[in-house]
Specification:
The protein is mainly α. It has helices spanning about 10, 15-25, 30-50, 55-70, 75-95, 95-100, 125-130, 140-155, 160, 195-205, 230-240, 250-265, 270-275, 280-285, 295-315; strands at about 5, 55, 170, 175-180, 185-190, 320-325, 330-335. α2 (about 15-25) packs antiparallel against α3, α8 packs antiparallel against α10 and α8 packs across α12.
Length: about 325
């Protein structure tokens, strides 16, 4: 006989202690904290709406179906939510070993999906159109240009941009200190137009409310650290103005994909990409090692040219003549 399922009231009373434990002991980033809290809140709302009185396997399976069918979550997004529940269950087990023994999260299999065709990225021309759609005649536009310039120019996550402080930037050495996942610190070199873009923002930053007393690099109109939600909303507004049309959903994170994919197209090695992106293992970086649509198009055009040439040779519409250059150095010249 299996262990009885834990009652929902007991289960959810550990949410706040769990969040405090994650923040204090593991020092997880604010972005991860928000994601964990959102995952647990969504699960709690689902459990209450469906009138589940215990955290059973049936409840979790139905939650997965709800995420997939009604919220259209990708495999990666669904896996993350289950991972949050699994971590939460392990935390509860430290306090309630007997009651937590029946939690079903460890038995839920990971969905092997992720990116079906690699992360989708805009073309270089589309990225240029996006940036040209930002109004740089206003303080807010100059700030936004710096935000998305950091995401595309350095491949930063939105949470990493959000967490930047004034002291993170050193324009004298053209470096930026970034705190990534797992509080991993990496120093990024500023190249190209980025130093000028960031310097331009610094010249108008003082016009924002609380600029002198706020340590945040990016400030909102109300004088607070600029929120991730505002960055996402502003990105969507700029994208709508740009008129860019894609078959995939474009978000702030797409700029990070563009950064990695465009560098991959230029032949940057995977270990260099891993370091730039702040990945802990090459496995996370491998999803970017794929040919772009432009590369595939060029390869196809070369293939079609070869096929066409072979057809001409077979039909006699094209002949090949050998012209000797010296005694032992023949060359091939095609004549149409």
């Amino acid at each position: 006989m299996g262990c009885p399922a834990m009652k929902t009231d007991l289960f959810f009373q550990y949410v706040e202690p769990f969040m405090d434990y994650r923040k204090t002991v593991y020092e997880v980033s604010d972005q991860t904290m928000r994601s964990n809290k959102a995952d647990l809140s969504l699960f709690e709302k689902f459990i209450k709406q469906r009138n589940f009185t215990a955290i059973s396997g049936k409840a979790v399976i139905n939650f997965q179906k709800y995420l997939k069918e009604e919220r259209a979550n990708s495999g990666a997004s669904l896996n993350r939510k289950i991972f949050t529940l699994r971590s939460f269950g392990k935390f509860i087990k430290l306090h309630e070993p007997q009651q937590a023994a029946g939690l079903p999260f460890k038995d839920i299999l990971k969905i092997r999906q992720g990116y079906k065709q690699g992360p989708q990225a805009l073309t270089v021309d589309q990225v240029q159109v996006f940036f040209e759609s930002i109004d740089r005649t206003s303080c807010l536009g100059i700030r936004d240009y710096a935000i998305y310039g950091l995401m595309y120019g350095l491949g930063l996550r939105i949470g990493e941009v959000h967490g930047l402080n004034i002291e993170s930037l050193n324009l004298k050495n053209n470096t930026l200190i970034v705190i990534g996942k797992g509080s991993r610190r990496r120093v990024m070199n500023l190249t190209g137009e980025l130093p000028r873009i960031l310097a331009e923002y610094l010249t108008i930053r003082s016009r924002f409310l609380n600029a002198n007393s706020n340590n945040a690099f990016l400030i909102s109109k109300k004088g607070n650290r600029l929120s991730i939600r505002t960055m996402e909303d502003n990105f969507k507004n700029i994208l709508d103005r740009s008129g860019i049309i894609t078959w995939f959903k474009v978000t702030c994170h797409t700029l990070r994909h563009c950064f990695a994919s465009h560098l991959n197209d230029q032949g940057v090695e995977i270990m260099a990409l891993q370091s730039l992106l702040g990945h802990s293992t090459p496995k996370s970086t491998q999803i970017y090692i794929h040919p772009s649509m432009q590369k595939l198009r060029e390869a196809l055009e070369r293939l079609l040219a070869v096929i066409y040439m072979n057809q001409l040779l077979r039909t006699g519409a094209m002949t090949l003549k050998f012209q000797a250059r010296g005694r032992d150095r023949p060359s091939i010249m095609g004549v149409f």
